[in-house]
Amino acid sequence: MAFPENKLIVFNKPTLPNSISLTDAVNYYDLTIGVTSRRSYSAKIDDFIKRHEEHFFKVDGAANAIQLGYMLFENKIDAIFEYKSMFINRYQRAHGIDKIRYLTIEPSEPAAFGYIACSPSPQGKQAIALFEHALQTEKIKTLISTRLMELFPAPDNALIVDAFNAAYKN
């Protein structure tokens, strides 16, 4: 599955650049970033979180993820990771939404990919191989592309469909 790239979302921080590396975010700007435990933000971001845990405020559970946005508006944390379209949809009526900025995390990628996980047993390897084979067929790629266009609003949907199709070219 393909997802839009995560943005580093900040509130009332007009001096931050529009594009920022995670290293600069935590070392140069000393940001405390709110994250949800057990959520994968992407392999790159997840690895960074593990190596720099002291800069991250963690909440447990999907229900608490919404609370991170409110903590951002209350200046209890400096930033969160989220899809821009998801954040806009969730907090469109929040007081101060006009002071929200969506920073690109460098290096930037148009989409993040989620993967199925199976045990390294012969059966698990076979299941993954079958799934990968199915993703090479035009019918399946078209079904997934159509669903991605429906799931995510523009312009995210076009970017992730392009990234998905590029990843699974025949």
Keywords:
170 residues; alpha/beta; 6-stranded mixed sheet; two-stranded antiparallel ribbon; 8 strands; 44% helix
> What is the 3D shape?
globular
Range of helix content: 40-55%
What is the count of β-strands? 8
- Assembly state of the chains shown: single chain
* Cα gyration radius (Å): 18 Å
- Major sheet, described briefly? 6 strands, mixed
Order of helices and strands: EEEHEHEHEHEEHHH
**What strand line-up does the widest sheet have?**
3-7-2-6-4-5
Instruction: Classify the beta-strand content into a percent band.
Output: 15-25%
SSE-based structural type: alpha/beta
Walk me through the structure.
It contains 7 helices and 8 strands, in the order E-E-E-H-E-H-E-H-E-H-E-E-H-H-H. Helix 6 (138-151) packs antiparallel against helix 7 (156-167). Helices cover 44% and strands 21% of the residues. The mean pLDDT is 89. By secondary structure, it is an alpha/beta fold. The strands form 2 sheets. It has a 6-stranded mixed sheet with strand order 3-7-2-6-4-5. Strands 1-8 form a two-stranded antiparallel sheet. It is globular, with a radius of gyration of 18 Å.
Topology:
Layout: E1 2-4, E2 7-11, E3 19-21, H1 22-28, E4 33-37, H2 43-51, E5 56-60, H3 62-73, E6 79-82, H4 84-91, E7 100-106, E8 111-113, H5 122-134, H6 138-151, H7 156-167
Parallel strand pairs: 3-7, 4-5, 4-6
Antiparallel strand pairs: 1-8, 2-6, 2-7
